[in-house]
Task: structure prediction
Amino acid sequence: MGSPWADKQLNTRTSYTGTAKTVHWFMAILWIAIWVIGFVAVHWREVYNQHFQLTFLHKALASTILILTVLRVLWRWGHPAPAMPDTMSAFMQRAAHFGHLAIYVLALVALPLSGWYWSSVADKAVVMLGLIHIPPLVAPAPSLYTTAKGIHTLIAWCCGLMISGHILVALKHHLVDKDTVLRQMLPHRRRP
Result:
């Protein structure tokens, strides 16, 4: 079995599976919600996050991303992505491959891990879905607090830009190129 991101010549699928679509859109909505909640929790702390309720919610939801990512990769391994349109150049297809890989590595792995690390050095609990206490990654280290916060913040902003770019490129494929890239991930409409 080859890489789930590089099986174009072996794949005749014209659309993602229903499971892949459901997981993609669920994780997309969840990720954006987590990002917005984190932004509001930090930048409007005095107004909306006085008792750190948004921080708790941010961490409760964000801690699920790693598990969902593992499940998504396992599913994708056995169900490769549909082939990219022939109208895309080899360079653009390669760029799309690396763009998706960057989303997985940075937005779905590095970002939640950096937040977990920040909570760990700050000696703050992470409670997945508000139910399951996750052990700290490292021992509390107040001297690393500012560095951990800076790393998480930097990755969050980079990922916000990357996800915005992903959305814009998908819309460009749909509205300008008029190819199948976005339609492959949209739910099928049932005909009456």
The chain has one domain: 8-185. Residues 1-10 have pLDDT under 50 and may be disordered. The longest strand covers residues 126-128.
